[in-house]
Amino acid sequence: MRLDKLLSNLGFSSRSQCRDMIKKGRVQVNGNVCRDMAVHVPDGARVTLDGKEIDTRTERCLMLYKPGGILTAAEDQRQKTVMDILPQQYRSLGCMPVGRLDKDTTGLLLLTTDGDLAHRLISPKYHVDKVYLAALDGEMTEEDERAFAEGIELKDFTALPARLEKADERLYRVTVQEGKYHQVKRMFGARGRKVLALHRCSFGSLILDEQMQPGEYRELTEKETAALYAAAGKAK
Fold it and tell me: Cβ distance 30 to 24 under 8 Å?
């Protein structure tokens, strides 16, 4: 990637301002002052600005604790989205949500710059579990559990087999491997129950960090990222 574009995408300033910093000799690549804004910066190159090393990774994976009341969308003219929570740096790098959580659903939301990884993680083909806790308006039965395990027939499609487990009074854990629009709520609705609150606890091997509060985010560790790539059958 061009040096000026890289610095701009990393959120240091506008493209024109980054060019000015480069012209003034404030940027070094692999220990050498670089005034060529169009120079290609190879992966793994050491880049510094005013003597401070820059994290030049363009591929990022984030965990965000989605609060209720905001949309899972790239942008919206009227309502706040999950992208509004992130610094410009991640938006400039092309970090996008992996699938969707409904506006009122809380919990673990993944974001990544790797579109192919995102596609694989939400595709039923790769059998990546998504686990939710659902607070209901009543109790489920053993017959309901069997129905979930067999696959709930909805108006426009039949949901794949899912696992339903009781967690507490009127609180149930459900594990699915797909994520169509309002799917979990519709599955419970097909069995005569209303979902009062829905929270995603985990996505594949990744569990929502218990130290995080709603609206907080962090980058995944190398181990967490490697496990996601492995679950998606993709080389890292």
Answer: no
